[in-house]
Amino acid sequence: MYEYIIGQVIETTPAYLVLENQGIGYQILCGNPYYYAGKSKQQTKIYLHQVVREDAHTLYGFKTKEEKSLFLRLISVSGIGPKSGLAIMANEDHTGLIQAIENSDVTYLTKFPGVGKKTAQQLILDLQGKLGDLLPEGAEVAQVVVTKADNLALEEAMAALQALGYSEKEVKRVHKNLLNSQPDATTDEYLRTGLRLIMKK
């Protein structure tokens, strides 16, 4: 298993880069290979994760140990393979990703390719409360927790409405109404009121 590799980037493509080390060119899949395009004449360190399958040995590359660790935790979730994990990592707002998981923000998570509602809920179930150590320096875990406390009941109620089969448009309309009229309600209260509001329309 590889931890990292140091070499010279000699090619970048939309999906991968080629890094040369001691005369061997390694194909490394990255969320954003073009990040390394300006480093072609420098010695570059890339953290690696290797996935071995019957038909391929694939290297995935990351700028930092923290990025690699986040990727490994993502792909530990059922429904998230390396391809989906890399697509999620391509969005470099990792603080936003962690906060979305902490806040049970299914809508945010389903914006990533290959992540449907069920997978987003599994991400939240498996990783919530387990990513605080990966927040960038200066970001406060407490801030994430406070945001979660402020929004979790309403977001859970909205997720329950969607699970019942109500459209995203209906749920968004109810969300705005409830946020303004009942800022401190419980999930149960939000859900009951939301159902009443939908039935009135």
The SS-based structural class is alpha+beta
What strand order characterises the main sheet?
A: 1-2-3-5-4
CATH topology annotation of the domain at 1-63 = OB fold (Dihydrolipoamide Acetyltransferase, E2P)
Radius of gyration: 21 Å
Biggest sheet, in brief?
5 strands, mixed, barrel
CATH superfamily of the domain at 1-63: Nucleic acid-binding proteins
Helix content: 40-55%
Query: How would you spell out the order of helices and strands?
Result: EEEEEHHHHHHHH
Q: Strand-residue fraction? A: 15-25%
Walk me through this protein's architecture:
By secondary structure, the protein is of the alpha+beta class. The chain has a domain at 1-63: Nucleic acid-binding proteins (OB fold (Dihydrolipoamide Acetyltransferase, E2P), Beta Barrel), CATH 2.40.50.140. The protein is built from 8 helices and 5 strands. It has helices at 65-75, 82-90, 94-102, 106-109, 117-127, 141-163, 168-181, 187-200; strands spanning 4-12, 16-21, 24-29, 43-53, 56-62. Strands 1-2-3-5-4 form a 5-stranded mixed beta barrel. A hairpin with a 3-residue loop joins strand 1 (4-12) and strand 2. Helix 6 packs across helix 7 (168-181), helix 6 (141-163) crosses helix 8 and helix 7 (168-181) packs across helix 8 (187-200). The radius of gyration is 21 Å and the shape is elongated. The protein starts with a strand and ends with a helix. The model is unreliable at 141-149 (pLDDT under 50). Residues 149-201 are annotated as: Domain III. Its main location: cytoplasm. GO terms for molecular function: DNA helicase activity; hydrolase activity.
